[in-house]
Design goal:
Helix content is about 85%, strand content about 0%. With about 120 residues, the chain is mostly helical. The protein has one domain.
Length: about 120
């Protein structure tokens, strides 16, 4: 339940930032998507480490693994959002659909590899 709540908070930070960067400031969609993802990074790692998984291992090694996951997620997110937009899906719907799929995968990766 905590993972889902943190995911929701991270998604809100991500989607809100995407709306600000692309919808308000008109930053190029791919760049805006990447920037918004960076905002969510800080929210997600901190809350997952301290509150969800209550990890007490090395922050540095956890951060390295988390960064690897984030980079993979970033690549998938940027490509998927742009592809779905090209397929006529509104950009916010594309972002949310991509985030839902990645959230499920990320729980298992986080529990078994990052915050073990």
């Amino acid at each position: 339940m905590r993972f889902a709540l943190v995911g929701g908070l991270s998604l809100a930070a991500d989607a809100g930032s995407l709306f600000l960067f692309h919808g308000v400031l008109h930053v190029w969609l791919s760049l805006a998507t990447a920037m918004a993802y960076g905002v969510a990074f800080v929210v997600n790692f901190g809350l997952n480490r301290v509150w969800v998984f209550k990890a007490n291992g090395s922050v540095v090694s956890q951060l390295r693994r988390y960064i690897a996951l984030v980079l993979a997620n970033l690549a998938v997110t940027v490509v998927a959002v742009q592809a779905l937009v090209w397929a006529t899906m509104p950009y916010m719907h594309a972002k949310l659909a991509t985030a839902v799929v990645l959230a499920v995968l990320n729980f298992f990766v986080s529990r078994r590899w990052i915050f073990q």
